[in-house]
C-alpha cells in the first residue's frame, strides 16, 4: 500500500499550553477591549494570530545562533546573510532591518512621495500604511477572481495585467514603482504565477518603472508555481525562486515567515545608487548598514533559514498542514477562501455571518466567537484592517471579510488542526444565534487594527 504523508522533521522540545474555561475567556476578551491582539499569550490555547516570527527554528539555525558575530560593524554574520541573499535570491546589495515593515519604511522613504500611486496586488496592511502615511495611494490591481472565495483559481494572488496596463497608461508619471506581493496575503495567502510576474515585468519595462517584490512568503509562492504551473514541475524551489526574483529590481522581506526566524528582515536591490540612498535611512531608523537592527546571531539564523526554507520537503510539510485544515473545514461545510493558501486558512465571514451588518465587522465578530468557543486566536482581514479612507475618514469595506488562521511553521500538529476545525464547525452551526457584532470606541489614526478598542453593538 502507498505510505501516508508524514512531516519532514521530528520534535526535540515541547512547550505546555493550557486549556481555559469559557467563563475565563469571556472576561479576558472583554478586558482586551475585544481586540485579539490585546490578549496575553497564556490566555490563548492555539495561537493562529500570525505565522510571523512564531515558527520553530531548526537545529542548524540554533547552531548558527551560537556562532553569531556581534561586532557592531563588518560582522561575519552580515556576510553570511549577504552570501545567502546573493546565492538564493540573486541580489548584489542588501540592508538588514529588524523586520519587514522596517524594510518598507526605509525603502519607501527613498521611493515614495506625496501624491504618488503604487499599483500592485492587494497591498498588505503595513505596506498600505507606509504608502498612505506619506500621503500617497495604494492601487489594487488584483484579479477579480480573488474576490470569489468559492471559485477555484490556481493563482488568485495574480495582478490583473489589463487593470495594471490601464492604470499605467493614465497615471504612469505619478508611479514610482509597481509592487508584487508573493504570496498575496490579503487575498487569502494566494500565489502569483510566473506568467503573471513576467507580464508585470513587461508592463514595467514599457513604462520604465522598477518592480518591487513584497517577499515575506516567496518560497511558498515558488512551491505553488512548481505544483500548479505548467513547465515548472521538474524545477527545484531554488531554481524557481531565482527566476521569480530575476524579474524584480528590489525586494522587501519579513524574514519571520519563510526564513523561519523569530526576528529579522531586509531590503535587497540591484542598484548601488538605491542601496546608497537607502543606507542613509537605514542608519537613521534601524542601525549601521551591517547590522540594521539585527543581532549577529539572528543574521546567522536567517542565512540558514533562507537555505532551509527554499527546500521542497520543508515547504511540502508546511503547506500540506494548511491543506489538511482546509479539507476538514470543507468536510464540515465551513466556507473559506478556496483553494487554501500557503500560510493560512481564510474563513469567509461574509458567508458565515451575513446577518451581521458590515458596519459591525463580521470577520472580527467571527474571530471573537472562535476565541470564546475554544481559546483559538486568529486575526481579522476585513474592514478593521482596511482602515479608514485617509481623505474622507469613512470606513473602507473590502469585498472580502476574512478571518485569517495563520499556522506557525513546525509548531502545531494535525491534532491541533482537528481542534480548530471542530471549534469552527461549532461556531458555524450556531451562526444564526449570533445577532450582534462590534463597534469602535477608540482607534489609532493609521493601522488601527493592532490597538483598536471595541464594544458589543447594542
From TrEMBL:
Keyword line: Lyase, Pyridoxal phosphate
One Pfam family cited in the UniProt record for this chain: Beta_elim_lyase
Cofactor: pyridoxal 5'-phosphate
NCBIfam families in the cross-refs: PRK13238.1 (NF009709)
Lineage: superkingdom: Bacteria
Annotated family: Belongs to the beta-eliminating lyase family.
Protein name listed in UniProt: Tyrosine phenol-lyase
Residue intervals of the Aromatic amino acid beta-eliminating lyase/threonine aldolase domain: 47-422
N6-(pyridoxal phosphate)lysine: modified positions: 257
Organism name: Williamwhitmania taraxaci
A molecular-function term among this protein's GO annotations: carbon-carbon lyase activity
GO biological process per UniProt: aromatic amino acid metabolic process
